[in-house]
Every structure is written in structure tokens, then in C-alpha cells.
Design goal:
Layout: H1 4-9, E1 26-32, H2 37-52, H3 59-76, E2 91-97, E3 101-108, H4 126-136, E4 139-144, E5 152-159
Antiparallel strand pairs: 1-2, 2-3, 3-5, 4-5
């Protein structure tokens, strides 16, 4: 089961600028329950993580995107019955940082595309969340998972300003 980290990163490399999983500076993830409180838990986890990474100034944009991705996963990515065995939490949030990029990724058990395709209900809110994700992140996408992990990953990428003035002992 030690390959979950690299399996998680595989989809992120497709359709993105080259991101070497070995070059990740920091990575954190948390399992989220299939309840509405999961969005609040995801926000708190994101706040703590970005504070640890000294990136608190990006919290508003990143948190908005994380909230939308988690909400979409809960609303559209879980079985209608809500019965998802107790073994593996159905939704997981991953935050990964490279030197100049931050990626938020949410895994859910559904194989359905997160892109709002043909729908008869034009008043549906499902497209609005992805519009916000698109507006506040630099790019986003999704990829089905293969192997032991079933479902999909929806990711959003934030470019980080290159800070050559960091007081790193010099």
C-alpha cells in the first residue's frame, strides 16, 4: 500500500507542466468523511497546512477552490445510497507543493467526469463550482484512477511567485 502517494501523483502529471513527484517540497493529505462537515474540515486542514508552509497569504483563493472540489466530490462523487464501506474514507484531499506550484487534489470514488456535460436542468448549480475553480486557480483537470484505487482525482494548480528573497540562512 506504500504506492498510494505515487499513484496519486500520476494523474497530476498529465496535461500539466512537468511536475516531478520526487521534487515535491511538501505534501499533506487528509481523509474526509462523507458528510457536509467535511467541507469545514477541509478548510481547517488547508489553513493549518498553508500556515505550516508559510503560504497563509494564498489561503483565500486556495480555500475557495478546495471547498468547491470537496463539495463537488460529496455531491456528485459518492454513491446515491451513501453506503461506501467503512474501510477507506470515500473522499481524500491532497495538498502538494513544488517550488513554484501548489496543487490541490480531491479523490472520490466516482468515475463520472466532473465537467458539466449535457444537462436538462439549466438551473443546476453543478457548473458554478467548476467555474469558480477555473477562475481562482491557474489550471485544473481530472483523471480517472487505475489499479487498486478506484474513482477519480480532480486537481487544481496554483502558480506560486518565485521568491528569491527568502531568508534561508543567507
Amino acid at each position: 500500500m506504500g504506492t498510494n502517494g505515487s499513484t496519486m501523483l500520476e494523474p497530476l502529471r498529465q496535461g500539466l507542466p512537468p511536475l516531478d513527484p520526487a521534487a515535491v517540497s511538501d505534501a499533506a493529505s487528509c481523509a474526509l468523511p462523507a458528510r457536509h462537515e467535511a467541507v469545514g474540515e477541509a478548510r481547517r486542514f488547508t489553513r493549518r497546512t498553508l500556515d505550516q508552509w508559510d503560504m497563509g497569504e494564498r489561503f483565500d483563493d486556495v480555500c475557495l477552490v478546495v471547498s468547491e472540489l470537496v463539495t463537488n466530490a460529496l455531491r456528485h462523487g459518492l454513491p446515491a445510497s451513501g453506503g461506501c464501506g467503512d474501510r477507506e474514507p470515500p473522499v481524500r484531499l491532497h495538498l502538494m507543493r513544488w517550488t513554484e506550484r501548489l496543487v490541490c487534489a480531491v479523490r472520490d470514488p466516482s468515475h463520472d467526469s466532473p465537467v458539466a456535460r449535457e444537462t436538462d436542468d439549466f438551473s443546476a448549480e453543478s457548473g458554478r463550482g467548476l467555474f469558480l475553480v477555473d477562475s481562482f486557480s491557474d489550471s485544473w483537470g481530472w483523471h480517472p484512477l487505475a489499479g487498486a484505487l478506484s474513482g477519480k482525482v480532480v486537481w487544481a494548480l496554483f502558480r506560486l511567485p518565485h521568491t528569491g528573497t527568502r531568508p534561508h540562512g543567507e
